């Protein structure tokens, strides 16, 4: 639900919107971005706060989930 609010249902962001779709992106790419938000290496308006609410294992699971969607 947290992801869907901005990135759309099942990570399918609305075409033409500023946010990227998460569906089908490589797991390692997603995890790298999530961890960069969490550490502050990648700047964001809200993602740094959201990612700090999840454990590393949960972020790994989220990355795996979205990468597996077609």
Mean pLDDT: 90
**How many E-type strands?**
0
Radius of gyration: 11 Å
Task: List the uncertain runs.
Answer: none
Helix percent reads 40-55%
What is the CA–CA distance across the termini? 18 Å
Alpha plus pi helix count:
4
Shape annotation: globular
Secondary-structure element order, N to C: HHHH
Largest sheet: none
The helix/strand class is: mainly alpha
Strand content: under 5%
Helix and strand topology:
Layout lengths: L1 H6 L19 H13 L7 H5 L4 H13 L2
Helix pairs in contact: 2-4
Q: What does the model show?
A:
With 70 residues, this protein is mainly alpha-helical. Helix 2 runs antiparallel to helix 4. The longest helix has 13 residues. It is globular, with a radius of gyration of 11 Å.
Question: What's the short version?
Answer:
Helix content is 53%, strand content 0%.
Overview features:
single chain; 70 residues; mainly alpha; 4 helices
């Amino acid at each position: 639900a947290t992801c869907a609010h901005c990135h759309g249902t099942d990570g399918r962001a609305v075409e033409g919107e500023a946010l990227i779709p998460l569906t089908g992106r490589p797991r390692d790419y997603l995890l790298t971005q999530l961890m960069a938000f969490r550490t502050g290496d990648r700047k964001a308006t809200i993602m740094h706060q959201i990612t700090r609410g999840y454990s590393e294992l949960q972020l790994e699971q989220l990355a795996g989930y979205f990468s597996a969607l077609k």
